Amino acid sequence: MTTIETIFTTNNGQIVNVIQFKDSANSKIGNGLVIQTYHFSIEQVINNDLHLDAKNCLDCPLSHSSGHRLGVCYTHKGMQLFGLKSMLKKLHRLNGKGLICEFSNTTLNAFISRVQSTINKKGQFIKLVRFGAYGEPIFLGEQIISKLAKLGKNITGYTHQYNKDQYNWANKFFMASTHSHKDMAIATNRSFRQFNVLLKNDTIVNSVNCPSSKEFELLKGKKVSCINCSLCSGNYKSIKKNVHILAH
């Protein structure tokens, strides 16, 4: 199936967003129709350099701008890294030709119409809307996120901006991406469910191991793809427990 995508800027042109509809065959994400979002800084696009991620990854402790070298974030590894570099190279070319425009509802609605027309013809449905396949998805804003979330059976999304008042609306859609008990306490206080990345062996109360993780597979002898799991959907569904995974 042909990939359908829309590209636009937000945050006064500082963030370049890519929304893709495609048929996934990823071993972790799973098999089926998905919508995925990617978020690059304009500096990354202009310079064709993934390292310039201060504006699109913000205070994520695994970003390049935090001082870490290539390889800490899972998106900086293997095929994910290859795909990001290819996408960034394409954005660099489009931007050089002046073909990346500011967001408009007309553009988004046209994208949604094309997607719905495609799945209706095939008699299929979108299994997952995956926010932030790369970068901080909060930049899409509540209106766009709400529209996209309604298109899929399940959603996933993670944010490091759970501690900021202006983004408290995101607890409906996203998990707070946390790295310590202190982070988790802040997120809980703001009504965010948490996806905690364990950097060392630790015990977490009221939390389940990510069903698509390697450690879950080793323990249970199987794993569940993100497409078939609804745990990381913020408060979008009536799920109470938090989720954790070993750093990978």
Layout of helices and strands:
Layout (H helix, E strand, L loop, with lengths): L3 E7 L4 E12 L3 E12 H6 L6 H4 L20 H19 L4 E2 L2 H18 L3 E9 L6 H9 L2 E5 L1 E2 L15 E4 L2 H9 L4 E5 L8 E3 L4 H7 L21 E5 L2
Report on this structure.
With 248 residues, this protein is α/β, with parallel strands linked by helices. It folds into two domains: 153 residues, no CATH class; 69 residues, no CATH class. 29% of the residues lie in helices and 27% in strands. The protein is built from seven helices and eleven strands. A hairpin with a 4-residue loop joins strand 1 and strand 2. The radius of gyration is 18 Å and the shape is globular. The two termini are 30 Å apart. The mean pLDDT is 91.
User: Main β-sheet, in a few words?
Assistant: 6 strands, mixed
Could you give the order of the helices and strands?
Answer: EEEHHHEHEHEEEHEEHE
Kindly estimate the percentage of residues that lie in beta strands according to DSSP: 25-35%
User: Rg, please?
Assistant: 18 Å
Strand order of the largest sheet: 4-1-2-3-5-6
Low-confidence stretches: none
Helix content bin: 25-40%
Q: How many discrete structural domains? A: 2
Number of DSSP-assigned strands: 11
Distance between the termini: 30 Å
Average pLDDT rating: 91
Can I get a quick summary?
By secondary structure, the chain is an alpha/beta fold. Helix content is 29%, strand content 27%.
Which tags fit this structure?
single chain; alpha/beta; 6-stranded mixed beta sheet; 5-stranded parallel beta sheet
